[in-house]
Amino acid sequence: MADINSTPVEVVQAVDAAGLGQLIAAFPESSDATGPGVTASLMRASHKASNDDRNGVFVYQNGVIWQRRRKNKHSIDGWETERLDQFRWADIADFTQSSQRTVTTSGFTTTNHRFWFTLRDGRRFDISRDGQHSSKAACFSGLERFAATVDPLVTAAQIPLAEQALQRGEKVGCGILSVDVNGVYWGRNFLAWPDLEEMTFSNGSV
């Protein structure tokens, strides 16, 4: 399990080589439940069940390191790094978030979160909390905090790139919308900036 206090040596070396800057957060997060009680034990068990220990995601100021691990009984913690992937926030071509809330007939509520990072070189990284573990997806708890951590970092890196593209006369996409110096586009529709009186954002919709 990734721990902000015990970043693997391979990750530290990759970060230094790529110049990703300061470590902001590491996921999966460690469980806050301590003690011998039944409640604490159940919370630790639930926390472990919601995480895929084969993956660690390390969020840095300028990008992210994605560690995939495999078991190794000869290593100190029982794991070894199988693969490291890294990218900078400025390398992202598309970043999508999806949340699905489910309420059972007994009133039990679960919320599944998924994130897709598509890079300009065509690579794609999925992060989810829906139990679908695979070599292409990291599954861990604390995705609400992951989103809150990553959003401003991605935005800070992407806004200057979008402004440069607009200055070159290019269109810049955001979800189903795209904009340029002339106005807003969605599907086959177009609205010129002088004709736009108000634009409202609510729960991810425009």
Mean pLDDT across residues: 76
> What is the terminal-to-terminal distance?
38 Å
The amount of beta strand, in percent, is 35-45%
- Runs in which pLDDT lies below 50 for 5 or more consecutive residues are 31-51, 130-137
The total of beta strands comes to: 12
Number of helices: 3
Oligomeric state as shown: single chain
State the order of secondary-structure elements, H for helix, E for strand.
Answer: HEHEEEEEEEHEEEE
Share of residues in helices: 10-25%
Sheet with most strands? 4 strands, antiparallel
Order of strands, main sheet, comes to 1-2-3-4
Shape: globular
CA radius of gyration is 20 Å
Q: Helices and strands: which structural class?
A: alpha+beta
The overall number of domains is: 2
Question: Would you mind describing this structure in some detail?
Answer:
- The chain folds into two domains: 9-170; 171-206, no CATH class.
- The protein is 23% helix and 36% strand.
- It is built from three helices and twelve strands.
Quick take:
The protein has about 210 residues and is α+β, with helices and mostly antiparallel strands. The protein has helices at about 10-20, 40-50, 145-165, and strands at about 25, 55-60, 65-70, 80-90, 90-105, 110-120, 125-130, 135-140, 170-175, 175-180, 185, 190.
List the helices and strands and how they pair.
Layout: H1 9-18, E1 23-27, H2 38-49, E2 55-60, E3 63-71, E4 79-88, E5 92-103, E6 109-119, E7 124-128, E8 137-139, H3 143-167, E9 172-174, E10 177-179, E11 183-186, E12 189-192
Parallel strand pairs: 7-8
Antiparallel strand pairs: 1-2, 2-3, 3-4, 5-6, 6-7, 9-10, 10-11, 11-12
